[in-house]
Amino acid sequence: QVQLEESGPGLVKPSQTLSLTCNVSGVSIRTKYYSWAWVRQPPGKGLEWMGAIGYDGVTFYSPSLESRASISRDTSKNQFSLQLNSVTSEDTAVYYCSRIVTTEFDYWGRGTQVTVSS
Questions:
Q1: Which is nearest to 80 in space by CA: 95, 62, 63, 65?
Q2: Is the separation of the CB atoms in 35 and 27 below 8 Å?
Q3: pLDDT in tens, 51-73
Q4: DSSP letter assigned to residue 115
Q5: Helix, strand, coil: what percent of the chain each, to 5?
Q6: Which among 30, 59, 103, 114 is most buried, taking Cβ atoms within 10 Å?
Q7: pLDDT for 38-49, tens place per residue?
Q8: Residues with Cβ within 8 Å of residue 2, at least 6 apart in sequence
Q9: CB-facing half-sphere around the CA of 1: CA atoms within 13 A
């Protein structure tokens, strides 16, 4: 059974870096041809795809976040991570990790609330 679980601080100060990790179980993140994504939902808004890392380690980012976001992985722990630099209140959201197969997001974590506030 595939499971994803997000972890990280729930509160980040403005201008600092947001760091989240997604722990994956039930499947290796190196399995062809899955990709592993970060998606967020600000309060009162829709889902926003942030970026993804492929089974081969290649990364993809939303153009609007490319300058601030970085996705990496630790294959020994079967985890992938998100770093978002220079956060503002606009980055307050529920953050989800998800698996992508072709164009479908088929498994999701429960989500973790991140609030940017001093």
A1: 95
A2: no
A3: 999 999 999 999 999 999 999 99
A4: E
A5: 5, 55, 45
A6: 114
A7: 999 999 999 999
A8: 24, 25, 26, 27, 99, 107
A9: 2
How far from 86 is each of 16, 45, 63, 97, CA to CA, in Å?
5, 21, 16, 21
Whole-number CA gyration radius for the chain: 13
- Give the residue among 77, 76, 27, 79 at the shortest CA–CA distance from 53: 79
Among 23, 40, 36, 45, which Cα is nearest to 113's? 40
State the amino acid at position 72 in one-letter form.
Answer: S
Please give the single-letter amino acid code of residue 86. Answer: S
